């Protein structure tokens, strides 16, 4: 229950963030690198035995994947 209350606004805010970043004049390779770095950080937190973030690390990996796909599709 608490997870859904936190996750929905976070996903909406990050969607707006990705939309604003996709409209900027930066090349797509920078978006791809940003997404890959977020994926790596989320993956390291996921693999760590002592971390218990309640699924936030999986959300980080998903957001990194979405940002990487936006960077791949972007025309520059």
Task: Reconstruct the topology from this structure.
Layout: H1 2-22, H2 28-47, H3 56-73
Helix pairs in contact: 1-3, 2-3
Mean pLDDT: 78
What is the percent of helical residues? over 70%
Instruction: Give the biggest beta sheet.
Output: none
- Compute the gyration radius: what is it? 13 Å
Strand content: under 5%
Low-confidence stretches: none
Shape: flat
Distance between the termini: 42 Å
Number of domains: 1
- Strand segment count: 0
Number of helices: 3
Q: What order do the SSEs take from the amino end to the carboxyl end, as H and E? A: HHH
Given helix and strand content, the structural type is mainly alpha
Can you describe this structure?
The chain has one domain. 78% of the residues lie in helices and 0% in strands. The longest helix is centred in the first third of the chain and has 21 residues, at 2-22. It has helices spanning 2-22, 28-47, 56-73. It contains 3 helices and no strands.
Give a short summary of the structure:
The protein has 76 residues and is mainly α. It is built from three helices and no strands.
List keywords for this structure.
78% helix
């Amino acid at each position: 229950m608490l997870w859904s209350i936190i996750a929905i606004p976070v996903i909406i805010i990050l969607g707006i963030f990705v939309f604003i970043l996709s409209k900027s004049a930066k090349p797509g390779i920078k978006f791809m690198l940003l997404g890959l770095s977020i994926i790596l950080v989320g993956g390291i937190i996921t693999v760590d035995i002592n971390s218990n973030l309640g699924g936030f690390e999986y959300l980080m990996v998903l957001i990194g994947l979405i940002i990487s796909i936006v960077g791949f599709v972007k025309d520059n």
